[in-house]
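seq:
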Amino acid sequence: MSLVELIAQADERGLAASGLACLDRCMPLLGGDDEVLRPLWANLAAGGDPAGWGELLEQVRGKLGIADVVDDEDIEDEAALLARRMLAAAPAVRSAAEARIWADACSVASLQIHRLLDPAQDDASSGDALPQALNSVRAGGTAVEGRTEGMSPLVAAELRRQISVLELLAGHGAGGLRRALEVSTEGRRVLRAVVSRRARGRV
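struct:
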């Protein structure tokens, strides 16, 4: 099943977890520590109060110094800008309708971030054509079937992680959150290493 199909069929918890996992993996671009999103993960667990989501979200934004609207002119790095937009766009209410829009947007943004940060990225595939190309990748289900030819390693791995998170939540509900968090943590470590190498290369 393709990533687009998984998002279309996911329930409210699965959608919120999908968006949150994308944001979690991109945390190295936001300068936050590895625990800053834990309260939101806990809110998705069995017994978590959906009504408390909005307040926890505001606390996270406050810690990271990000408002619910991002001024594009303040940020020159496109990958960091996309990550900030993900957090800024997070819905204040945990509803399936709003979470689906957010999860879909986070999916594209996170894939685009990984494409931008890939060392093999070339300018010809960046810019306005990139979101359209990534949407095609998401709809094709190539990573599910093991065919990732033509995809950069970072994008292929991120696509697999996005699919894994949605499948875990679809198959196990709240019981799949722990494994979904482990998948996200692995991805965050990979991206942190990429961001670190990128920073060293700019010195």
